[in-house]
Amino acid sequence: MPRQSVDRVLYVEDDPDIRAVAELALVDVAGFEARLCESGQQALEQVDDFHPDLVLLDVMMPGMDGPETLRALQERPGGLPVPAVFMTARLQPEEIEEYRAMGAIGVIPKPFDPMTLGDQIRELLAGREGA
Amino acid sequence: MVSAASGDVSSRLAELRKRFAERATDDLKALEQRAQLLEGEGADGAVLADVCSRLHRLAGSAGTFGFPELGQAARSLENMLEARADDGSLQEASSLAVERILALRTMLESPPLPAQVTNDESAQGAVERPEGSHGVRVRVLIVPAGKTDPQWLDKALAAYGFDCQVRHETDPELIAVLAGELQTATVILCASVRIEGVIRARDASPSDQVRRLPVVCLSEDLSFGSRYRVAALGADGFFGRSPDLSELAERIEYLALERSTRVHGRVVLVEDDLELAEHYALVLRAAGVDVLWVNDPMQLMSELSSFQPDILLMDVQLGQYSGVTLARMVRFDPQWLSLPIIYLSSEDDPDSQLEALSRGADEFLMKPVSDSYLVRAVLIRCFRARQLSRLMNRDSLTGLLKHSLIKQEVEKELARCRRDGHAASAVMVDLDHFKKINDTYGHRCGDVVIKALANTLRNRLRETDMIGRYGGEEFLVVLPHCDTEAARRLFTEIAEAFGQLTFNCNQETFGVTLSAGVAAINDHSVGDDAVDAADQALYQRKRAGRNGVTVAGDE
């Protein structure tokens, strides 16, 4: 896979407080361009318009949860050509394996630190490229 | 990578934090109501699901907004409720749940941490800080009367190994300066004309770590009235304008040590209920206690000797084993005769408690025990246990390890060297012409010099190094992961710094030098041989003119 730089992040999270702090973390601290969606449905509607380089998904959401959203994104005609990362408050080792098997490149535990969220994302990407 | 002005980011973060706190307050109120429903009417699936999902949200978000303690407590509560719902014992646990939700509210009221680092290494560093300030370089913030105030103190104190900073900021500016002193062992040294404002600036800090910083006053006016005023302001020490430096250094060391000893402890927890054990461990760890959980009583003895706890916390009934019998068994081993044993028990029959006490337990904590009570009970007992072992193991004059203990440390280090293959050094340190000091200036002066050397060693060495008072004016130091050349460099520096100290006794001023002999612990088959080799090297140094370092095998 060609080395891709990540500038545009699509973040799906139902909690408005977390969305606000994540926007600050992704845009102001990490320097990404970010699009924030409050549900999996909204992510599906906006993904083609935004053209993200990376999709960041909260696992536990009402309605369509994170894994379901990822599956729906992958099942679109063009599939999901960019890496996906999950965020979860309950990190079990077997869960990470399950998410990796689904095609996610990694999992970021919640609560996250707004000052280093961008670094965590970049580390996951670097780890994947090094592999 | 921080593109926007970071000031802007932090003010927006603060705004978000405030909003989160408001919403979380509402959340906690709702949680309280719902938990009371669980208590009153029994488990209703929908109510339980709602409680768990609110707790889950808090667990995942509170840390991001600067309330990590709240997040962890919510997570543990969520885990407990789910487990109780699974095994059908929810209703019994719900009053405990209500109590714990009330406790969440106090966590929300505590001011958020300034830096939201969830996997915070610096915070862990603080938790793992060893007993006392040994290994932590003590910082002294010097606030002089004005710009023209002579600054001889910072250089003089730096010779004792303190990290001195002279601060000329105004009182309001000092608030920001002090905010940077969260993780360090810091003491404020302040001219009397500034003391009122400095203490006010310290007390205005939102962090209670900053508000606990000790303040020492230097005053020209030594009258009762002046001392009383400074004491009333809440200062921790009072010295004249030309203080006895070794006394001042000792006071600073003591205050820093007292503050950084935030009574931690090491606890072995024997509990067969997984959920409870996890909860106790979490609560205690959050209070800075090292917890080792032992699930299988068969492993207890070996875990005790490898973990070396301050106290043992034990359930009364552990499956087929009785905690009472286990306590008696633990006491078979002379090593554990003085180990405080505390039962966690739902046994409220006074007779069976007495029975348990007679068999070797020291105390009962009734289940369900509230988190704050558990933490207090454990911390107090750890503190007492440590005080006691300090009395038994430490030299009263210097606070360093006693002769027999430092010799044991050499043996232990030799065993570690064999296991891991690293190099380690033993250093024997001796004051030059000490007898002459005692004879000329008296024993009190001699004690001052010995304490000064102890303080210098404590300040200069790492926390992993071990220091013991070997004889009258002889000290033995064990330096793990340090070859003899590194030890030579280190003690050459220490000898130079110590030689620059001046002592004032009976109106006279004098200096003292030291000699040191170094030997590689890993070169010897028994610890005593390494100590002898270091002693031989010291003897050679003495013959070669003292004041310096000789390594065993030097020509």
TrEMBL record, chain A:
Enumerate the Pfam families for this protein.
Response_reg
Q: Which SUPFAM superfamilies match?
A: CheY-like (SSF52172)
Residues annotated as carrying 4-aspartylphosphate in the record are: D58
Q: InterPro entries, from UniProt?
A: Bact_response_regulator (IPR050595), CheY-like_superfamily (IPR011006), Sig_transdc_resp-reg_receiver (IPR001789)
- Gene Ontology biological process terms in this record: phosphorelay signal transduction system
Record-annotated membrane-spanning stretches: none
Indicate the segments annotated as coiled coil, or none if absent: none
Q: Does the keyword Phosphoprotein apply?
A: yes
Q: Gene3D superfamilies attached here?
A: 3.40.50.2300
Domain of life of the source: Bacteria
PROSITE patterns, per the entry: RESPONSE_REGULATORY
The segment(s) forming the Response regulatory domain are: 8-125
Which UniProt keywords are listed?
Phosphoprotein
The protein's name in its UniProt record: Response regulator receiver domain-containing protein
Q: Which organism is it from?
A: Marinobacter persicus
From TrEMBL, chain B:
- GO MF annotations, alphabetized: diguanylate cyclase activity; protein kinase activity
Q: Which cofactor does it need?
A: Mg(2+)
Gene Ontology CC terms: plasma membrane
Start and end of every GGDEF domain?
422-554
Question: According to the UniProt entry, which residues carry 4-aspartylphosphate?
Answer: D315
The record's EC number reads: 2.7.7.65
| CDD domains (alphabetical) | GGDEF, HPT, REC
Q: Which UniProt keywords apply?
A: Phosphoprotein, Two-component regulatory system
Record region (Disordered): 112-131
**Which top-level group of life is the source organism from?**
Bacteria
Alphabetized InterPro entries for the sequence: CheY-like_superfamily, Diguanylate_Cyclase, GGDEF_dom, HPT_dom_sf, Nucleotide_cyclase, Rev_trsase/Diguanyl_cyclase, Sig_transdc_His_kin_Hpt_dom, Sig_transdc_resp-reg_receiver
Annotated HPt domain ranges read 9-111
The processes (GO biological process) annotated in the record are: cell adhesion involved in single-species biofilm formation; negative regulation of bacterial-type flagellum-dependent cell motility; phosphorelay signal transduction system
User: What catalytic activity is recorded?
Assistant: 2 GTP = 3',3'-c-di-GMP + 2 diphosphate
**Residues with the Phosphohistidine modification:** H56
Pfam families on file: GGDEF, Hpt, Response_reg
Record-annotated Response regulatory domain positions: 266-382
Write down the PANTHER family for this protein, in alphabetical order.
DIGUANYLATE CYCLASE DGCM-RELATED (PTHR45138:SF9), REGULATORY COMPONENTS OF SENSORY TRANSDUCTION SYSTEM (PTHR45138)
This chain belongs to the protein called diguanylate cyclase
Source organism (scientific name): Marinobacter persicus
